[in-house]
Amino acid sequence: GVPAACPKLYGVLPRPCHALVLLNPQSGSGRALDDFQAVVQPMLAEADIATTVFVTERPHHAHEKVRDEDLSQWDTLVVMSGDGLLFEVVNGLMERPDWKEAMKKPLCILPGGSGNALAASINYYAGYDHVAKKKLLTNCTFILCKGLYTQMDLVSLSTASGKRFFSFLGFGWGFISDVDIDSEKYRWLGSARFTLGTLQCLAKLRVYQGPPRQPGPLPPDSLLVPLGQPVPAHWTVVPEEEFVLVYAIYQSHLGTNLLMAPAARLHDGCIHLFYMKAGISRVTLLKLFLAMSRGTHLDLNCPHLCYVPVRAFRLEPRVAAGIMTVDGEALACEPVQGQVHARLCRDGRSGKEEHDCPPPMASLAHGEEPCI
Ligand SMILES: Nc1ncnc2c1ncn2[C@@H]1O[C@H](COP(=O)(O)OP(=O)(O)OP(=O)(O)O)[C@@H](O)[C@H]1O
How many angstroms separate the alpha carbon of residue 188 from the centre of ligand 1? Predict the structure, then answer.
């Protein structure tokens, strides 16, 4: 049942429940459909959750499906894939004229990809032990069976060329994004691809130049000015220097084995901004990444690694070099800014009450209506 201490934090799926499952058969090591049939379906059947499976045939297929779908027939949208397919689903829903209503539909992620950062984060928020692969899938399916769902922050990202994205996981530039994208060719390795990719990128460490960002507390609306204008005077500006990486993450995990922001929660109203200045040795960088598997990298007090929780940020690369990523998907390198659209802002609950409550016990999260 719903925890008595804070009943308003959770919604509950009806029973019987009808779920539309969007499944990418190519994600991760290509076993998503088999795993769904063998592991997920029997558990959902016992929980009285009926499923209709939509197998994606190409990129953008899920985006179009949820953009045009009559959502009233579904109690929840379940995404069985990596984070990339959920990114399509969130942005497809945001393209609908009725996006305010559409974004109230509970969303669920079941790990079928190679990164599975949101699934790993939800497993962590729920208080489960760190697990991967089939065990992570079983935990996330179990959370869906319980049927509790809660809200999630989204970050609105805009680029200098006029693109706009709604992001649930993170924005990155430099080292980590290189690993994410350069290692695509190793997707058959599953999550090991990130380990291999990290080692490869370490071998040819690149340095990026640019000035980023700012922190809060900031007013709940109009945090951003157009990218052509200077940031407001009260923003903190990190002077132009060379960066190895910039990563703005809003969930705890960057990958199944990367606990980058241990303090992050689904709706903490925060962007957890990390940046790493150039001059760091490869050995230290490797030590930081190894520590990140346990979430202890900040304890190393590395002077090159900076961490600031913020509500908005801007990144202005001096030259268009390197890969940028949004929720693991590649972007051309250009000036980008973003601000969090947090449930807490609208809800009026204090952060303290929020943290006094147990962490969400549901992988079902519906984003609040972002205040655009
Ligand atoms: N049938 C398909 N064939 C090829 N690509 C697809 C198909 N369906 C979806 N895609 C695309 O594949 C991309 C990656 O998918 P997804 O995120 O599910 O897997 P992944 O890359 O293994 O996982 P992760 O994001 O965790 O690394 C999605 O952005 C989507 O556009």
Answer: 13
Ligand 1 geometric centre to CA of 338 (Å): 24
Closest ligand 1 atom to Cα of 111: 26
Helix or strand run (H / E) with residue 157: strand 154-159
**0.80 exceeded by the pTM?**
yes
Exactly one of 83, 153, 180, 268 is catalytic; name it. 83
Question: Rounded to an integer, what distance in angstroms lies between the CA atom of residue 87 and that of residue 64?
Answer: 12
- Does the CB atom of residue 147 touch ligand 1 within 6 A? no
Q: How many angstroms separate the Cα of 110 from the Cα of each of 141, 256, 371?
A: 7, 13, 28
Q: How far is CA 290 from CA 57, 238, 281, 295, in A?
A: 36, 27, 14, 9
pLDDT tens for 267-308 read: 898 999 999 988 988 889 889 988 999 999 999 999 999 999
Residue type, 106: P
To the query of whether residue 83 is one of the catalytic residues in this protein, the response is: yes
pLDDT digits (tens, 9 = 90+) for 10-59: 789 999 999 999 999 999 889 999 999 999 999 999 999 999 999 999 99
User: At 152, which helix (H) or strand (E)?
Assistant: strand 148-152
What does the DSSP 8-state code read for residue 321? -
CB 96 within 8 A of CB 166: no
Q: Which domains does the chain have, with CATH numbers?
A: 7-153+349-367 (3.40.50.10330), 155-341 (2.60.200.40)
Q: What does the pLDDT look like over 150-194, one tens digit per residue?
A: 889 999 998 999 898 899 999 998 877 766 666 654 454 455 455
Interhelix angle 83-94/61-68, rounded to 10 degrees, is 30
